[in-house]
Design a protein that fits this description.
By secondary structure, the chain is α/β, with parallel strands linked by helices. 37% of the residues lie in helices and 13% in strands. The chain has 10 helices and 10 strands. α7 (254-261) links the parallel β8 and β9.
Length: 356
């Protein structure tokens, strides 16, 4: 066996933003059923470690192009974390102040990462859910003349997935089978943008959408009440708090509505947060692939689909982010900080360098 070598990318980058996208599709080798082939698209390879780097970059650059965002203007947005981290990276690279509003129920490391990247984080009461942080961002934008990113309504969100994520998938699976594409939704940008392309260019690929079992607002069949701008007017009545951070706010985003109206998915399956955590842990421990609860939940549904998929089927699963966003959440509650009994026994099996 020869030693692994690398040759570099053959180019130099002018800034960190040029490294957004072109994330790898990685085969699952140990935990997928043997009669199918499963790949994951690992969005943690983006520079700020999530799929939301894509929309953050496009929302800012599109607003720069058409004059909605002026040099030095403050950007403000409501986020559960990943969009805020992506925006903090983009704004740091471009020189815009950023204010993020976020419910205080989301993981502490997310707010610390945003502050580390130079953003201000304004916390809102968890009892007000996602709509509370959303309305706080609108309130701050209107009061101060700030640029509101509007990830939940902006066409710039789905557009970037149509022009990057979908094109990467087509290129990586050119002249190869792709029977299922599996994704969850937060804003709806990923599913809407990618589905626009797959429906036209890979119509035989089945699109599987998933949402939390205890916050199944799309499968409830109840429409979202909106104001004249398409923004949510009320919290969706079918919403309940769920542990899959980054997924399914307490309203149906306008960006997702396009997928619902145009039948951009073939099946909608619920997933329990506990199942998502279990598969996230298995991906890490058995495949060396580190993803959060949202990635684990998407993968859980992919494994459910795979069990009944025809022999030889190929599945691609979206993994939105890295597991490091979840260190203070229940995903890691069974991971000890101190040595376990087994580790102490290993330490004591040789005489030196033992903790007192």
């Amino acid at each position: 066996m020869t030693i692994r070598t690398t040759e570099g990318r053959g180019k130099l980058y002018d800034n960190v933003l040029e490294t957004v996208g072109d994330t790898p599709c990685i085969r699952i080798n140990r935990i997928a059923p043997s009669h199918v082939t499963v790949y994951v698209k690992a969005e943690a390879f983006n520079p700020a470690a999530s799929v939301k780097d894509r929309l953050a970059l496009n929302i800012i650059e599109a607003a720069e192009r058409d004059g909605r965002l002026q040099p030095g203007q403050t950007v403000v947005e409501a986020t559960s974390g990943n969009t805020g981290i992506g925006l903090a990276m983009v704004c740091a690279a471009k020189g815009y102040p950023l204010v993020v509003t976020m419910a205080d129920s989301f993981s502490v490391e997310r707010r610390r990462l945003m502050r580390f990247l130079g953003a201000k984080v304004v916390l809102t009461p968890r009892a007000e859910k996602g709509l509370g942080m959303y309305n706080k961002a609108r309130e701050l934008a209107e009061a101060n003349g700030w640029f509101l990113a509007r990830q939940f309504e902006s066409s710039d969100n789905a557009d970037i997935h149509e022009h990057t994520t979908a094109r990467e998938i087509l290129a990586d699976f050119a002249e190869k089978r792709l029977d299922y594409w599996v994704t969850g939704y937060g804003t709806g940008g990923t599913v809407t943008g990618v589905a626009r392309v797959l429906r036209k260019e890979r119509p035989d690929t089945k699109i599987i959408l998933t949402e939390p079992a205890n916050a199944a607002i799309v499968s409830s069949g109840q429409e979202q009440e909106r104001d004249e701008q398409g923004s949510p007017a009320i919290s969706h009545p079918a919403f309940e708090p769920h542990p899959i951070q980054g997924w399914t706010p307490d309203f149906i985003p306008l960006v997702l509505q396009e997928s619902l109206d145009k039948d951009f998915y073939d099946e909608l399956l619920p997933v329990a947060g506990a199942d998502g955590m279990a598969w996230s842990r298995r991906l890490a421990a058995e495949e060396g692939i580190f993803t959060g609860v949202s990635g684990g939940s998407t993968f859980a549904i992919a494994m459910q689909v795979a069990e009944s998929a025809p022999e030889g089927s190929v599945l691609l699963v979206m993994l939105p982010d890295t597991g490091e966003r979840y260190l203070s959440t229940p995903l890691f509650e069974d991971i000890p900080e101190e040595m376990t009994d087994e580790e102490i026994a290993l330490s004591q099996s040789t005489p030196g360098y033992q903790l007192p």
